[in-house]
Design a protein that fits this description.
The protein is of the alpha/beta class. The chain contains 16 helices and nine strands. It has helices at residues 2-25, 28-40, 52-68, 79-88, 94-100, 119-130, 161-177, 186-198, 202-221, 234-250, 269-278, 283-290, 309-320, 350-372, 385-390, 398-401; strands at residues 44-49, 106-113, 135-139, 151-155, 225-229, 262-265, 298-302, 324-329, 340-344. The strands form two sheets. A five-stranded parallel beta sheet has the order 6-5-7-8-9, with helices on both faces. Strands 1-2-3-4 form a four-stranded parallel beta sheet, sandwiched between helices. Helix 13 links the parallel strand 7 and strand 8. Helix 2 (28-40) packs across helix 7 (161-177) and helix 12 packs parallel to helix 13 (309-320). The radius of gyration is 21 Å and the shape is globular.
């Protein structure tokens, strides 16, 4: 029964993501023009967002060197810099102040905020307006909650947090692929991605959601670790960062009796640079992390190709530790056994795959939250797909529904 409900939920959710993406695509050429103008002029492109939005905006900047040949622009700031600055100045002005020193060299600022009212994003946008720097602002709803900008307020047309985030990442990823001398037309890449969304096998996905939900819920309740790893790096790793953030903060937030879960994620910059310096083998890092796993820990492995050597070594390490492994991939063979479960994504390029993976991650987080919220008196009850569609993870976030005073 739960599996069938999850299938209906996945179908409804992905339909909403496709609809929101289509709405955003109508203004895709405007976004391409903004990015082209800034990159062609050799100007910096900076990006800001809170929570999962930070991973989304950094994803588009990660793409630019591959499509335009321009150096990667600075996006956000290191966690060390952010914490240090937030302790010594008002966090609401931290993004704006990080722009102040070299604002004359900035040709575009990209922001993402589903509410459109996050004070630090609003302050950064106002600072850009005062200095005549164009802004590409992605927001939820109809976009009227944000003041007009020199550039573009790009609205998703929905206030659902996760649907909006998926549409934002999709729109940004495909917009960036339209840059550069050998880029295909934006309508072509957009239609291909919409076909990929429509071709997701929701019957198979339902089973994957059921298995992951039960495993993660049990891991959280029994204080076992959940690993979210993407040894391939790239935009898929940023989708993995977003997934780990949702599992750590959003899924259990406010659920009575649930402690913050134990989430292990990809190595930090300090860890990664040390590993590559001392051990040039790309598989070393994930093997090292999984050497600490215990039986019945949960491992999510996000990868482009399940047959590449690094992924195969990660699978072996997860199996050796006796973990429950969930593989999300596009190419290579499925890896389904009693302790392994995989889901194959439709064929897309590396950057668009991150958007599909993020949607699957959001589905897992919403079903996990619903499962965590069950009480001993409602364990037998199964939520409807309508209930799951209505259970946006965002309402508990202060910035989602409380207007902020300037």
């Amino acid at each position: 029964m739960a599996s069938a409900v999850y299938g209906d939920f996945a179908r409804a959710y992905l339909t909403e993501v496709a609809a929101a993406a289509r709405r955003m695509f109508t203004r895709g050429s405007e976004a391409v023009e903004l990015l082209q103008r800034a990159s062609a002029g050799g100007m910096q492109i900076r990006a800001f967002g809170n929570g999962g939005s930070s991973a989304i905006v950094r994803s588009v900047l990660l793409q630019l060197p591959f499509h335009t040949g321009q150096p990667m622009s600075d996006s956000m700031m290191s966690t060390a810099t952010m914490a240090y600055g937030a302790h010594r100045q008002d966090y609401r002005t931290l993004f704006a102040q990080s722009l102040a020193q070299d604002i004359d060299e900035v040709g575009l600022v990209v922001t993402a905020s589903v509410s459109g009212r996050s004070t630090n994003v609003v302050e950064a946008v106002r600072f850009c307006q005062d200095n005549r720097v164009p802004v590409l602002a992605l927001v939820g709803g109809d976009g009227t909650q944000m003041e007009p900008v020199d550039g573009m307020v790009w609205a998703t047309g929905t206030t659902d947090q996760q649907v909006s985030e998926d549409a934002m990442l999709t729109a940004l990823a495909l917009t960036a692929t339209a840059l550069g001398p050998r880029a295909e037309s934006l309508p072509t890449s957009q239609e291909r991605h919409l076909r990929a969304l429509a071709s997701v096998d929701t019957a198979l996905l339902a089973g994957f959601l059921y298995e992951t939900t039960e495993a993660v819920t049990e891991a959280i309740r029994s204080r076992r670790c959940t690993y979210v790893l993407c040894p391939d790096g790239g935009p898929l790793a940023l989708a993995g960062e977003h997934f780990a953030h949702n599992l750590s903060w959003d899924a259990p937030l406010g659920v009575e009796g649930v402690q913050p879960p134990l989430i292990m994620r990809d190595p930090s910059l300090a860890d990664m640079s040390a590993m590559f310096n001392d051990h040039p083998d790309p598989a070393y890092g994930v093997r090292h992390q999984l050497s600490s796993a215990s039986p019945k820990d949960v491992v999510f492995l996000l990868t482009y190709d399940s047959a590449n050597r690094t992924t195969r070594e990660a699978i072996s390490a997860a199996a050796a530790a006796g973990t429950r492994l969930f593989l999300l991939h596009r190419d290579g063979p499925a890896q389904s056994t009693d302790t392994q479960c995989s889901f194959t994504l439709p064929k897309t390029d590396h950057f668009a795959q991150a958007a599909l993976a993020q949607s699957i991650a959001h589905l897992v987080c919403r079903t996990t939250r619903a499962a965590l919220a069950r009480t001993p008196f409602t364990t037998a009850a199964v939520m409807s797909s309508h209930d799951l569609m209505a259970q946006d993870l965002a309402p508990l976030r202060e910035l989602s529904d409380i207007p902020q005073t300037p």
